């Protein structure tokens, strides 16, 4: 029996990718370490690696990241999934081309480095990875028009669109 998420978390900043480990990393980006740790501990920490689904749904010049645990587990504290619509990027395209059977899921803190103001300088950013990881074996790449109705992914995207009046 499949247990679907009963709510969707959209309040993370975006998605990042890291290519330098043996397996590629997908990073959900947060602006606050305490919040990121609390969200991980309440949700993903109890997920079984072999029941995590990570779906990328491309639509025009953007894509949806849909991440959830499908199944039941005694360790589940909360049945929340994650969804975000983000602009297509060269990093996403590179990730998609290099993906090979599994990824490492992590949370990361992404924030601006505070520095003395200088003329004509671009802001600098810092990326700090949280230590906890999950291995994700069920990764899929789709076009929006290929997603069947009445699936978790289709219903999640439709629900977010209704909520934000898209």
Short recap of the structure:
The protein is an alpha/beta fold and 166 residues long.
How would you characterize this protein structure?
The protein is α/β, with parallel strands linked by helices. The chain has one domain. The chain is 19% helix and 37% strand. The chain has three helices and ten strands. It has a five-stranded mixed beta sheet, with helices on one face. Strands 2, 3, 7, 8 and 9 form a five-stranded mixed beta sheet that branches. Strand 2 and strand 3 form a beta hairpin.
What tags apply to this protein structure?
166 residues; alpha/beta; five-stranded mixed beta sheet; globular
Secondary-structure blueprint:
Blueprint: E1 7-9, E2 14-18, E3 25-30, H1 33-42, E4 52-59, E5 62-69, E6 80-87, H2 90-98, E7 103-112, E8 125-129, E9 134-136, E10 138-143, H3 152-163
Parallel strand pairs: 1-6, 3-7, 4-10
Antiparallel strand pairs: 2-3, 4-5, 5-6, 7-8, 7-9
Query: How many E-type strands?
Result: 10
Q: Biggest sheet: strands, sense, closure?
A: 5 strands, mixed
The separation of the N and C termini measures 32 Å
What is the general shape?
A: globular
> What is the helix fraction of residues, given as a range?
10-25%
**SSE order in H/E notation?**
EEEHEEEHEEEEH
> In DSSP terms, counting alpha (H) and pi (I) runs of 4 or more, how many helices?
3
Instruction: Please mark out the parts with pLDDT under 50 across 5 or more consecutive residues, or reply none.
Output: none
β content, as a range?
Answer: 35-45%
- Mean pLDDT equals 90
Strand order of the largest sheet: 1-6-5-4-10
Tally of separate domains: 1
Radius of gyration of CA atoms, rounded to a whole number: 16 Å
Structural class: alpha/beta
